[in-house]
Amino acid sequence: MRFFFTYGAEGQPFCGGWTEVIAPDFESACSLFRAFHPCKDGNLLNCAGVYPEERFEKTSMFASGNFGKRCWEKIFVRRAFAEKQE
């Protein structure tokens, strides 16, 4: 699933736009986001809002950007196996 972590006008990792996180569920997406953008205040995510893909695609941000900006980064986990050992 894709989740979109949006940013406000100031005080967050980016000004406007969003970070796309690919994860199996909301909790995993938040954990991945926190790995790169730690919480600033207790357990509060360091972003303005979080949207699952189907909801984000219905926002004006998806169509025209957020504060004039779009996607800054994509965060996901990739698993690779080592060469076969004998």
Task: Write structural notes for this entry.
The protein is an alpha+beta fold and about 90 residues long. The protein is built from three helices and four strands, in the order ββαβααβ. It has a four-stranded mixed sheet with strand order 3-1-2-4. It is globular, with a radius of gyration of 15 Å. The model has no long low-confidence stretch (mean pLDDT about 95).
Short précis:
The protein is an alpha+beta fold.
What keywords describe this structure?
single chain, 86 residues, alpha+beta, four-stranded mixed beta sheet, 3 helices, 4 strands, 23% helix, 22% strand, globular
Low-confidence stretches: none
With helices defined by DSSP (H or I, 4 residues minimum), what is the helix count? 3
The helix/strand class is: alpha+beta
Strand content: 15-25%
Average pLDDT, rounded to a whole number, is 95
Order of helices and strands: EEHEHHE
Q: Roughly what percent helix?
A: 10-25%
- Rg on CA atoms, Å: 15 Å
Termini distance?
36 Å
Largest sheet: 4 strands, mixed
Multimerization status: single chain
Strand order of the largest sheet: 3-1-2-4
Number of strands: 4
Shape designation: globular
